[in-house]
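QA checklist item 7 of 12: single-chain prediction sanity check.
[x] sequence parsed
[x] length recorded as 133
[x] structure emitted
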Amino acid sequence: MKKQLLLLAGAAVLFASCGGENTEDQGQTQAQIDSTVNAQVAEKEAELARQNEEKLRAMEAEQAAKAASANKTKKAEPKAEPVSPPPPPPPAPEPAPAPAPTIGNGKPKMGQGNNTSNKQESTIGNGKPKMGR
């Protein structure tokens, strides 16, 4: 019985020693950490924006210098004589007359009586073939 009582007392001491920590008093709070990180991010963003502005100004100055030098070279060049326009093209020849339609050109029309003879034969172009003749 003494062993059980001793074991029970040891477990109670262990539980009591672990429960005494206070998590709110551990250095910085989450809000303080967030504000520090946000300040660092804002500082980096400002530095990058300043660097980008410097690069843009340098590029603009370079382009302005190129444009100014191009304008100077254009003024120094002599003007070329105006070139006369090319002569107009000759008139197009008249198109050849269309060939006369021949039998078998195009798709035959049904029921128009394409057959010139009196007898009704089963041929291509006269609709359905007649059965039984």
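[x] summary fact logged: The helical segments are 2-18, 30-76.
[ ] second reviewer sign-off
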